Amino acid sequence: xxxxxxxxxxxxxxxxxxxxxxxxxxxxxxxxxxxxxxxxxxxxxxxxxxxxxxxxxxxxxxxxxxxxxxxxxxxxxxxxxxxxxxxxxxxxxxxxxxxxxxxxxxxxxxxxxxxxxxxxxxxxxxxxxxxxxxxxxxxxxxxxxxxxxxxxxxxxxxxxxxxxxxxxxxxxxxxxxxxxxxxxxxxxxxxxxxxxxxxxxxxxxxxxxxxxxxxxxxxxxxxxxxxxxxxxxxxxxxxxxxxxxxxxxxxxxxxxxxxxxxxxxxxxxxxxxxxx
Length: 276
What we know:
- It contains 9 helices and 12 strands.
- By secondary structure, it is of the alpha/beta class.
- The chain folds into 2 domains: about 10-105 and about 240-275, Rossmann fold, CATH 3.40.50; about 105-235, NAD(P)-binding Rossmann-like Domain (Rossmann fold), CATH 3.40.50.720.
- Helix 5 links the parallel strand 7 and strand 8.
- Helix 4 crosses helix 8 (about 235-250) and helix 8 crosses helix 9 (about 260-275).
- The radius of gyration is 18 Å and the shape is globular.
């Protein structure tokens, strides 16, 4: 990577975010297609400061992750219609000093699910009520899925369910849902707390589809349990790479090298698993 006075700056904001593989994925993609750019991780809670810094430096684009996907909206100049509909932003484009929010989580999730489950009429449980949960619930409901949301904080979960026109079930009663598709969107089970699992084992019935959007570790405890009980599992790498590819395209107007992006992420995760 050659950094000079023409190098464009991108990054990811979140708290925490130092564990993120987004810098590895995007910097690899920039190198493959020959774009003079660098992508960094910015661990911060100061969203107003982020917005000001993007305009002042300027930073060309950012990814937005936990816990900022909803709050960042207050500091943007405009929203893409899909991001406005969903009410969650995971991508910001700096367009000549105007910060525009996009949502690529929804399309990333649908691509991860494509070919694995027929969404129309499928009883689906979304675990969590953050920005990713909002995006995925919206996307699969648009495809005809019957969606129920559960969340540890009932007020947040029921508010999201009401906003999207979905069902809601309290956290302690999630096993009352006869789900054919379970999508886990919380940080529970993310490294370093890899032994945690938010789903009761009794829900993991043979033949259902279980997706965990956590990509680190590659196989969460939830996915290992689900696979051992005959469920079809989808790890978080596919959604991570596809949403990142859409970000890359928005920022650069260049098709992302998805295969290479996926390979470098999986290689990093396998090395990490081998060292533990």
